[in-house]
Amino acid sequence: MVNSPSAADPAAALVRRTIAGVSVAELAQAHGTPLYVYDAATIRRRCRDLARWDTVRFAQKACSNIAVLDLVRREGVLVDAVSAGEIHRALAAGYPAATPRGTADDLPPAHPIVYTADIFDRESLEVVVRHGIHVNCGSSDMLEQLSARMPGAEVTLRVNPGFGHGPSQKTNTGGEGSKHGIWHADVPDALRRAEWSGLAVTGLHMHIGSGTDLAHLAEVAGALERVAEEIGRSLTTISAGGGLPVPYRPGEVHADLGGYFDLWDATRRRLEARFGHRLRLELEPGRYLTAEAGFLVTEIRAVKRQGSRTYLLVDAGFNTLARPVMYGAYHPMSLCPCDPLVAEGPAPRSTEVAVGGPLCESGDIFTQTDGGFVATRPLPEAAVGDLLVIEVAGAYGFVMASNYNSKPLPAEVLVDGGYGRLVRRRQSVGDLVSGETV
Fold first, then answer.
1. Is the omega angle on the peptide bond into residue 410 within 30 degrees of 0, that is, cis?
2. Where does 75-163 have alpha helices with state H?
3. Per-residue confidence (pLDDT) for residue 106, from 0 to 100
4. What is the Cα–Cα distance from 209 to 174, expressed in whole angstroms?
5. What residues act catalytically?
6. Residue 186: left if φ>0, alpha if ψ -120 to 50, beta else—which one?
7. How far from the centroid of its chain's Cα atoms is residue 43's Cα?
8. Gap between the Cα atoms of 265 and 285, Å rounded
9. What sections of 257-398 are H helices per DSSP?
10. What is the predicted pLDDT for the residue at 2?
11. How far apart are CA 166 and CA 184, in angstroms?
12. How far apart are CA 321 and CA 399, in angstroms?
């Protein structure tokens, strides 16, 4: 993951000079910092990891730049949208709104775009109706609101199985502590409301949390099978949801994707035998497709001592990458020295540092644990002007960025075939006030 690490010198493993073959320093010089950089080859590889599934549907809320959406679309990946804006992004990236009429392999057709939410805000409902977008309903009220505008539509039900899991309660999407999905015991009532409204329930979806472990994800298969039997033969598609974990910390590994697919394929086959027709099996990854492909490049602007602790202060803050302050999330980090002699020579010795940003907030720390406690990280000795690279930042990075402290949004670059292409220009201070009046 890092360029030419040396087992004998731990500091060498913390130095990064290139991203996908392109110089980090040159990217920063050309596009400024902070800067998000995505490796197209890694995204393609992760898409192809999941080729056994009938449908891979990207949860674009993880990384919704239209260049990334276009890339996964070209890999045959379909898309999930949670807002009118995400539907617009999908269309701009080349996804058709209309569902194809049939497939060559006798599987039910897959919907190019699915709107997934627990409510319809008024704008989303208008966009869904205008484009005929398939809807994954997370509340029974959505059924009646949709039927009033699209009588006879087919829908998917998102069901909360009564349990959830994840590394943070904030990313847990199942159980009583979650607002998401139709409660499993309320499915019969939802089916009655759909029937009375003239809607056909053709899909079933469950998702219990983001970044959870495979053992808990596997529990969803049994819960979905039980609910599918309640719904019956109208089902044509079942979705395992998302939440596939990726390694952030040293020693973490990828999930057993083959075993996970086999478990869900067996569930699908049992339901096909019961219903007497084929079922499409979907997976809805977000972070799995883009997290490891993303890097946040930021410049060190101050090195300071606070008692016994050394802080590196960079020009990115939690307005740029919110995961550490929101979840105590861990991201690997590496250093790109700006001094050519240091950059080309052996790695500087490492030292323990805390890394923080420029915001007027004590919580603006990238090396913190859940609960806001400041931690340290071993990094090569750094100087002002060196570049810090925050890694595995391609999911829930730019998409959660804000203008807090009136900071402009960063630029985004997609690296493909040894060339870095600007796919979003840096926001200007003029952009910050362009919609405001005195």
1. no
2. 84-92, 122-131, 140-149
3. 81
4. 7
5. 360
6. alpha
7. 12
8. 17
9. 257-275, 287-290, 323-327, 340-344
10. 39
11. 19
12. 9
